[in-house]
Amino acid sequence: MSDLEPLSGSQVREFKPSKSKHSHSSTKKHAMLYDSTVDAAAISKALSHSHASNIDTTTITRILPSLTHDQMLDLRGEYKKIAKVNGKGINLSKHLKLKLSGNYGKIAHVCALGRWESEGYWANFFYQSHSSRRELLIESLMGRSNAEIRAIKDGFRDKRYSDDLEKMVSRELRADKFRTAVGWVLEARRQEETEVLGDAMVKRDVGVLSQCLRTKEGGESAMLEIVVRRSDAHLREVLKVFERDYKVNFAREALKRSAKHSNQGEVLAHILNGVINRPARDALLLRHAIQDIAAHNHDEELRYELLISRMIRFHWDRAHLDRVKREYLAKNRWSIEHHIGEATKGDLRMFLLGLCEPRG
To answer: How many structural domains does the chain have?
Structure first.
C-alpha cells in the first residue's frame, strides 16, 4: 500500500471530540457494571419531540458511540421497556430510524443495531444503493472468522428473506463466481486460525496458485477458493513461500490478473491486504472513504455509506481501532479525527468523532 497525500495543504485546526460527562474517567467507574436505565431514559426523552428540529441529538451522540456491543444490547433491552409508540414498546434502532433522517439518522440507527446485526444491514444494503457498491457486502463478510459469520447470520433481520442472509444472497446476486465466493463464506467453514494444515498443504496451495496465474483463461475460482477458505496464518505462509519460490508477489500478480473481474479482484484484495497488514488496510479504507467525501458534493447522502460502515465496524474492536489510528497518522501525517473534521459537518461529524474516542 502506497502513502497518500493529505487531503489539503492548508493548516487547519485538529478536530477532537470533547470529553463528555458520560465518559467514565475514574478507575472506580471502570469497574462498575453498565446501568442502561439512565441512558435508555435519556434517549427516550431526546426522541420524544414531535418535530425533528427539536430532537436532542447531543444526548444521542454522547451515549451511543461510547458503548460496547454488550452494553448496546443491554440498552436496547431496557429501551424497549420504557419507550412506547402507540402503547407498545419500540426497538431503539427502529425508533432512531423513525425519528431521525439523513446520514446522522443512518449512523445512529446502524450503531444501535450492535456489532453483528449492523454487518447484516450492510450486507443487505449494498444492492439497494443506486451505486451498487459491492464493497459494503465484501467488507461485512470477507476475511471473517467462522464465529463472526455465524454471529452475523444469526443477527440478520429482513422479513422479505425470513431473516435468512443466505436466502438474500441467492436472490439478489446473480449466479457467478462472486456469488459462489460469498456462499463459501456463509458456510462458515473457513480454516480456523488454530488449525495447522502443515507444509505439504502450503506447498500444494502455492502450486495451485502458480498454475492459476500461468493459465491464460480461467483459474479464478481456484484462486478464490484458496483465499476465501484458508486462515490468515496459512495464507501468510503461502504468500511467503510463493515469493521465495517464484520471486514475485502473489497478491500483486493476482490483482493484476483479476482487474477485469472487479468483484473477484475486490474480494482478493480485501482478504489478502488484511492478511498482510489489517490495520494498514483499514486505515487506507478510511482514507479512501474520507477522500471520496472531500472530493465530491458534501451533501450527497450516498457518498457517506462507506465511511459510516467502516467507522461503525472498527469502533467495536477498540484495540484494532487504536492500531488503525496509529497507522493512519503514520501514513497521512494527520489524524483520522482531523480529516473527519475537514470532510464532514454537524451532528454526523460529532458522531463520527465520538466513535474515535477511547472508551473509559
So the answer is: 2
